[in-house]
Structures
1.
Amino acid sequence: MVWPVFLGGAEAGTLTETREGLYRVFRADCAMTEGLHRLYLHGAHGSAALGLLRPEAGRLRLCRRFTRLEEAALPRPILSVSDREAPEAVSPAPENGGEAAPVWRALADGSLLGMQGEERFLALPAALSPGAAAAGRLRRIGGKDYLVFRL
């Protein structure tokens, strides 16, 4: 699995999760930025500190190994990775010539609930619903493809 890493609100790199023997390994690789950055994994039911990025070969990197017992304390599913303790609302760039976009909140099943004025929207991960493309509008939100439906 690979997630974008957000530092100071901007996408700065990636976090990769792999299984290596008995361990779950997380590796972050980010562009060099000023200051100290602690990475947090954000899930539907909380956040967990992953560790502190450190300078290495002109980049900011982190490698952290977890046993199965340690891994059980991590939020699942992982919805985002950032240097902030609490996740921010995911909001795409304005669409339709500057019209304000919905503000999105992550739900436990990986879908998003959006509010724009009095209108509500549901966004389902496109990878989980490939046959439903004709029923919704395909949009990129927070770096992932979603099918968006008006409720």
Note: The first helix runs from residue 68 to 71.
2.
Amino acid sequence: MKSFFKLVLVLGLLLPGRAQEILPDPSTFGRSDSLAIFVVRARSADNGFRQMLATAINGAQAQKGAPSLASVLSSFLSLRSQEEMLLAALPLQWVRVDSVGPDGRLLSNVAITLAGWRGFQTLIYNALTAGPEGKPYEKRLHQGEEIVLRDGWQSPGARLVLARVKGTFLNCSTPDQARYQIDRLLGKEKTPLQGPLWQAYSQLAQDKDAFGVILNRSGSLLKVLDWVNRTDTQRVREKLGTERFERAAELVESASWEADVVSDDRIDIEVRFATAGRPQAEELALLLEEAREVLDQEGRMGDFYLAMTPGGVKIGFAMVGFHDLVSRYLGTVRI
């Protein structure tokens, strides 16, 4: 009987309701004063992602321990049915937009859109809008939508101002930013986005699995590198020395990237760095070659290339060697 209730719970979470057919344009979540945008998408038609999902499901079958989403699904469904059920949740889009606050700190808003699993969305939202003892958090209304002020929301860097609009979860730094995001999603705020960030953004290949651009303002590039991978950033800093490491960052006026999931063990990435001129680009290229030696020590960087461009430097590489991590992932999703 206990397993039966688990099955009912899982099916209640996974059966899609009215799905949102079109993901919102990532620029919807931006402002003219934004200095960075990061976009990640997972789509059911993507062969690389499907292979990654199949590896995760297969790997979870062999794992023991506390009940996980994978272990409950495997009790009732074939591997093919599990894959189809999880794919029904897609497409998924994750967008982060950064800006610099009045005190110089990097502030960010995150928007997550999940097209399927509407029942799951509601359960998540209900859990996020109440404290540990079930007491609802303070709420405000804007354009008929709820803005939830979670504990600690007064700290802008915590992103604890929550809203859900048209299947998109908004995690904002301040209530004002939440109101702006709601207006944009509802089509109430239609001011075109202008400035160097959005000019660079328009040049990206937006059919990729991940893409983005950052303007290097107020040390934003170094802050983002720490956020993406603090461990590897610190290793490169130690290799180059703090002075040369920070000099490399200063040479970059902006950086843009595109990435594709090729398989369960490989992601291809291209990064373009814009500099003030050719001398700066050549200096940056030398520093990037040294940084590459550090990052490649564990053999997880393949097919590296570096080329000079009219506006700076372009590098490309493959991130490999995470098959085992993928195969263990679903076994960690507890229910």
Note: The CA atoms of residues 56 and 301 lie 22 Å apart.
3.
Amino acid sequence: MARASLRRGRVFVVTTLSGEGSPHHAFLSEDEVARRDDGRVALSVPGESRTAANLDARRAALLLFWVGRSPRTLALRRRVRGRGSAADPARRLYLLDVVREERPRLLPGESGGFVSGLRYERREGTAERGRRRAVKEELFG
């Protein structure tokens, strides 16, 4: 039996809107998000998820993530429909253009800031680690 190892990493929060306009938040790991050399963002999400359905129905999404101790928000727009993932048939791949990037700014007289971003911890075996590596490679095209 393969032994599972502990994996830790950063969490990305993607927010999509349903057809009725309700927000839906999903948590992705760095294995499922890539900022490509062409400036676009690639996402790999479970094909049967609400996130995939919302990205197919509506073209807009927000991506929240941390750079050091500073949160960033990317406003994203999908140009073409998502496609099935070659690395994992249970997932869909989406390429999105960055419409706007927002960095937090303190108001005059305000002091403070974030101490840390969202992090995850999971156990994964060799097969899962290999599948996630293949998904990440596919995101970079």
Note: The mean pLDDT is 91.
4.
Amino acid sequence: MYINNIIIAIVVFLTSALMSFMYGIDITIGNYLWLPMGAKVLAFLLFGLWAFPGVLLGSLMSGIFLYDVWSGNTFYGPLGTLVGVLAPLFAIMIMRYFRLSNFFDEGVINFRHVLFLIILSSLINTLTKLFLYIDKVRGIDGKEVDALNFIQSYLTGDILGGIAFVIIVLKLLLPFLRNRKLV
């Protein structure tokens, strides 16, 4: 369990590092490809609630080390990070409550259900952060949150990044590792 959480924290942190390197830092507008959403979703699907410490640690390390303590938003930045960690868990709970999916068919992840999970997680994350950040957070250049740009960028980035990460791991990386007998 501890090793899994350390690996999860490292993966979440590294995907955040890659995204911050590609896009820069401004919490008032999201990146158009946010791979950490996929890392979080996949971690919770594979390890359940036991992945929470690793996902939270990786997300907090990202905010502290990569995003300069959330660009000075020391209350709303960590709160937004917590929302980003809880959104996939909440989406999984909703889907299980309504019996939409158990996400696995005969031990194999059902990609279509994971796709819906990513979309639902992204929607929960984006709308919660919008209500959290609107009129409270200022970006790097001092501008306030523009709601339409915020929704469009965060939702697009979470969905595209989540899908990209899951495809990379499930469709490309795992078969490669299995062929090499590394997994």
Note: The helical segments are 2-23, 35-47, 52-66, 68-71, 76-97, 111-133, 147-179.
